[in-house]
From TrEMBL:
Binding annotation for Zn(2+): C130, C133, C150, C153
Compartments it resides in: Cytoplasm
Pathway(s) served: Purine metabolism; AMP biosynthesis via salvage pathway; AMP from ADP: step 1/1
Entry binding sites for AMP: T31, R36, L57, L58, V59, G85, F86, P87, R88, Q92, R160, R171
Ligand binding (ATP): G10, A11, G12, K13, G14, T15, R127, T136, Y137, Q199
Organism: Romboutsia faecis
Name of the featured protein: Adenylate kinase
Top EC class for this record: transferase
Subunit-structure text: Monomer.
GO function term, MF aspect, one: AMP kinase activity
Length: 216
């Protein structure tokens, strides 16, 4: 199964990705996570990406596309993968298409999680993430059992640098301008499923699994 997860910031892509990769046993490739790891490690890529991420802007395609295509060619992606946060604009989608064609790889599904703009800001601003295992919580909608502590590994929870109201609003605008058109792009290919992201986390997951079917 080769899946793309689309949706605005705070739609629940990361939350749903955790369940999808476990159920279908495929690697989770999140460009946002890769950039954040590089920022933490202080690499050149991390330094460059941070300039854009802190402003809520897209990291330039030159720094992003090769990262994903290299990752897809690794052995653990042979039987499938899930892309989360990539592609992010039509140019990235076209470059991905070219790469997939050259390598005889076909996408199976594009899952588009839809959530109203006014809900997205509170979802992102209230998000907390585990420093150790990456599990995602929300102070109100999905709180951990003990405040500030991960349920899974007891790690410390933190807030992402770009999860403040101003940067989230910018990210939503960038999504509307650059990423939203990708839904039409993949609808034309016939592999798009729109999912109502304004249900409980479990209900959203159920709809995604129904859209993906039992295909491997
Ligand atoms: P990225 O890391 O991809 O972030 P994003 O797309 O902005 O998405 P988020 O991680 O904010 O949201 P999500 O949909 O994963 O929501 P989550 O599940 O956490 O990108 C960050 C930055 O990196 C970009 O701005 C850009 O600079 C750069 N970048 C990344 N990829 C790039 C690319 N391809 N090209 C260029 N630049 C790129 O959920 C949010 C909150 O809501 C959580 O607290 C969760 O608990 C809660 N929640 C989830 N589902 C529900 C529900 N059903 N009901 C109630 N609460 C819920
Ligand atoms: Zn944890």
């Amino acid at each position: 199964m080769r899946i793309i997860l689309l949706g605005p910031p705070g739609a629940g892509k990361g939350t749903q990705a955790a369940g999808i990769v476990e159920k279908y046993n495929i690697p989770h490739i999140s460009t946002g996570d890769i950039f954040r790891k590089n920022i933490k490690e202080g690499t050149d890529l991390g330094k460059k990406a941070k300039e854009y991420m802190d402003q809520g802007l897209l990291v330039p395609d030159e720094l992003t596309v090769g990262l994903v295509t290299d990752r897809i060619t690794q052995a653990d992606c042979e039987n499938g993968f899930m892309l989360d946060g990539f592609p992010r604009n039509v140019s990235q989608a076209e470059q991905l298409d070219t790469f997939l064609k050259e390598n005889n790889i076909e996408l199976s599904n594009v899952i588009n999680i839809e959530v109203d703009k006014n809900i997205l800001v509170s979802r992102a601003v209230g998000r907390r993430i585990c420093k150790s295992c990456g599990a995602t919580y929300h102070v109100e909608f999905n709180p951990p059992k003990i405040e500030g502590v991960c349920n899974v590994c007891q790690g410390e929870l933190y807030q992402r640098a770009d999860d403040n109201e101003e940067t989230v609003s910018k990210r939503i605008q960038v999504y509307l301008d650059e990423t939203k058109p990708l839904a039409d792009y993949y609808a034309k290919v016939g592999i798009l499923s729109n999912i109502n992201g304004q249900q409980s986390i479990d209900e959203v997951f159920g709809d995604i699994v129904a859209a993906l079917g039992s295909e491997k």
